[in-house]
Here is the input.
Amino acid sequence: MFKQLSIGVLLTAILCCPSQASDAPLLLDYQREFSMLEEADNSVDIKIFSDGTVQVHYPLFMRRAGDYRYQLNSDELDNILQSLRQLGVDEFNAAATRQALAQQQALALEAAQTGGGSMRIVTDPETTRVRIATSLIASVDVSEHAFSFSGVRHQAEIYPQITALGELASALNILDILATDQRMQRIEVTP
Amino acid sequence: MNTLAARLVLFSLCTVASQMVSAGAYVFSSGANPLIITHPNSYTGTGGEITVTFCVNPASESIADLDISARNVTTVWNTLSPAVGNVLLGGDNDIQPDEVDFESTLLHELGHCIGLAHPNLATESGVPAADRDYTQSGQGPNGSFDLDPGIDGLLGSSDDIRGDDVNRHWFRIADNNPFTIGSIIDLSTYSVDLADLPAGDNFAANADRDVSGLFGIPTTEAVMQQGASFDEDQRRLGHDDVATIRLGMSGVDETQGTADDYTINIEYIGVANNCDVQLNVTGASFAFCSISSAPVSPPNHLRINSANIQLGSAANFNWFFNPNLIVELAEEFFEDGFEAVDP
Here is the structure.
């Protein structure tokens, strides 16, 4: 799929100014925020660029603290983008999903209060932030799609009937693997 | 008309439930149900001592490293001794600048596992990080949070202007001061109803560290407040933590001194399965407690039915494991003279 992308689309899909990791357009920025810590540096940040460059930031309190970079080949990038498309990341509707979640939670609480069921919650949810150049990986005609959501993985497990959450959780698992690739080389990034 | 009514019901369901997860002063409370009080596992409405067993999962990592902290947090929650000046940063602790204190994190999560929620608008609210120190609430009829810090500019203080937000934080009726505590803690002295606030106060104040400065005391924060720093030791409970647990201990009649009152004995078993609270150190998530509910007395009294704490693997996070076992907790707490307990 990567090879099928037109140069014209590539040129119009720039999310922002060229990064220090790559001069290529940024395709996706995914942040996994460990929200219990209120420090500014509290997130694992994964950026994927259109040339296959992956840049990863680990915050100070993690074993891997620092910035890393490596290169995906075109097939790898193609597979990742295709998977993300299939899981609907580029069209994830955070507002609608929150509404669906709220309805399910209200029903669960009502059942819990009346003794007709049990409610389950998970405290201190992580916050997921995604910024994505949809014109590069999706059919929708917008240049950027951004959203945040709290507790994606746990809510997807508790409420499997909300398929959008389950798909997003699967997508996050794909992205998380990118941050443990053995090809990662530490780099120095100036603020 | 029917369609309109249905939409209103749907709107109500959505707006009141949207901040439900791990919310309010008690887990399972919500903007629509701010009166819910969640009790620890084992409480069924009958008074007396309830025992909550606490174990480390045999499959957990860092079992040897965490043992002292597990014992210490058990002691701290059993003792219920409130302290001021419980936030120790930098040179005031033995934690390195790039480390996070395992014990402080575990103390917070164990609080969730016995029924407490965040006093502040934490992650589950969905508000930006800069607004998370406002007091815990539901969004109210307008479907959004109304966030104005008031004249003092401090988030979470008593002069916050919160529009139609529904307060979920139990406050002390006498003074709306989360850094004090009285001898009677029940429905006669604590409330979630803003009509019970002292004259001049706009909203329930929460025990945020910046708010503690307004009261002229050393930096103090409720352990249950979400939002810690690296290199931070917060291993002692605040008054708000103790008051919230003790309010629950007044039982389903919410009156202290009656037959349904209970005390809590958390019993640390060590490495075992099938405890009321299981601790597992593993994985790439930072920290959480997964909780399920059971009814005690409908509609406002629930209890924890199962609780599983997970703290991230030491292969992923720079945990600091406290090597010092607490021996004389009460003396240690009050040696600085900051008892701050009102008669």
Remarks:
- The CA atoms of residues 121 and 158 of chain A lie 8 Å apart.
- The longest helix of chain A spans residues 94-114.
- Chain A touches chain B through 41 residues (CB under 8 Å).
- The domain at 2-181 of chain A is CATH 3.30.1560 (Mago nashi protein).
